[in-house]
Structures are given as C-alpha cells and as structure tokens.
Amino acid sequence: MISPFPDITREVNILNRIIWFLLNILFGGFISMTMLVWVSCDMEMPNFFFPVLPSSFIQSIFHIPWIDMKLIFPCKILFNAFLFALFGFVHTFFARNDVQQYLITRLSFPPLALRTFYLILTNITAWLLMGLWQHTSIQLWDFLENYTFQHEYRGRHLILLII
C-alpha cells in the first residue's frame, strides 16, 4: 500500500525522534493509565495517588472533578453525554486521513509529529472529560470491593466473565 504521506524519516535527527517518543509515552501511557484508575475507582481518584504527586499545583489538577455544577440528575447525564461526545468527536475527527493530509500539506505539519499531536489532543479532551465529569452516583462496577464479597460470589463473577 502506498502511503499518502511523504517519507521524511531520513530528514529527522535522533534528538527529535527521542522528543516525539517521550511525548508519546507521556500523553499515551501516563494519561491512559490515569484514566483507567479513574474509571476503576468509580470516577474518582484514589487517596493513595495524592502523596506521590510532587507539588500542590499538580495535586490540584488531579483533584477531580474540578467543579460540581449542582445539576439535577437528568442534566448531569446530558452534560456527561456531551463530554463523552466531545471526546469522541476529537478522537474521530483527527484520526481521519483527510484531516491528517490537510495538516501536513496546508499547515506544513511534520508527519512524524502527527501521532504525538493526535495523542495530545485526545488526551486533553480525555482530561477535560475526567475533570468536568459530574458524578451521578450510578455505579456500574466496583473494583475496590471487599475480599469477603469477592470470595462469596466468585462463582457468579466467573460465570458472568465467561458469558
């Protein structure tokens, strides 16, 4: 298959490649793991997370939700759906080949930086989703259950996992 993007890998020096790689790890790995922890802890950051953070500014970023809008239940669901739709739009829009081609040809965006640009944009919207999420008190699952409950109902959980 012929790629629509020009091959400029020979023109990029090793320092630029290392910088793009580190940005990919930061925005791809760290924020994805943070979102996984947030989802698995019922849309809240666990308490063990905060002492690890180095400064009060960074701790304030991780204290999510950033604001409580005091919305009624249906409005919370609509607002959360809007946040999810915003994330989905940014994620899908910038993954399209024609948008990527436009960034390369019209805006002279370096092709090697496209993945990093995509990761940064999608992770910013994921961070906005986490930070502005309005908790509805609807819990789909709980990964922090007590051991006795897990032991008593292990068979039922195993059956559900198999299904």
UniProtKB/TrEMBL annotation:
Keywords: Membrane, Transmembrane, Transmembrane helix
TM spans (from-to): 18-39, 45-65, 77-95, 115-133
Protein name: Uncharacterized protein
